[in-house]
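This section describes the prediction task in plain terms. A model, or a person checking by hand, is given the sequence of a single protein chain and must write out its three-dimensional structure as a string of C-alpha cells. No templates, partner chains or ligands are provided. The sample shown here is typical of the held-out split.
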Amino acid sequence: MWMICKKEWQQFFSSLTGYLALVVFLLLNGLFLFVFPDTNLLDFGYASLGGFFSLAPWLLLFLVPTITMRSFADEYKSGSFEILKTLPLTPSAIVRGKFYGSLLIVFTALVPSIVYAISIQQLSITGGIDMGATIGSYLGLFLLGAVFTAIGIFASSLTNNTVVAFIAGAFLCFLLYTGFEAFSKLPFLSGFDYTIEMLGIQFHYRSISRGVLDSRDIIYFIGIISLFLFVTRQNLLKR
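The expected answer:
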C-alpha cells in the first residue's frame, strides 16, 4: 500500500503541473486574505482567520480534483492498471494507497497556510486569534480535504479521461458541499430543512470550525470517506 502511496506522490510532483497547482492555491489564498479589499483580513479590525476558513473550501474544490484526477484515469489510459492488478495487493490496499498518497499532497498544501495564523497572531495588539477555534477549523479543513480526496479518487476510477475525472470530481464535491443546504431552503421542505442540511458536508465543516469537536461530525466525515473508498473498490473489482 505504501508503495502505491509513494508512487502517487512522485507522480504528482513529476511535472510542473503539480508544483503549479500548489503555488496557485497558496497565491490565491494570499491575495484574497491580504491584498483584495473586500476580503482583506487586515481590514477586519480584529484578529481572525474566519475569512481564510470560509475561502479555503472553495479553493479545495478545484485543487483536490486536480490532485486526484490522474489517480486511476492515467492507469486506465496508459495500460499500467493491468500491471497494477498483478501486484500482491488487494483492491482495498490499492485504493487506500491512492487515497493516502493524494491526502498527503493535500496536507502539504495546507501546511504553509499556518503562516497566515502566525502573521495574524504577531500583528494582533491584544488578545490574538482564538486558538481553540483555529485548531478546530484546521482539523475541519483537513477532514474536508480528506472527503474531497475520497470523492476525487472515486471520480477518477470511473473514466480513463483525466479532464472528465476533474470535472466529475469537482462537480461531486460542489454538490455534496453546498447541495444539501441549497435543497433545504426550498419552500415545500420547510419542516425538514434542518435535517436535510445536516446531510451536507458544509454543515459539519462549520460545526467543527467553531472549535467544538463533536463526535457526530467526526463520524460523519469518516463515514463519507469510507463510503466513497468502498464504491471505488467496487469499481476496481468490476474491471
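For orientation: The chain has one domain: 2-238.
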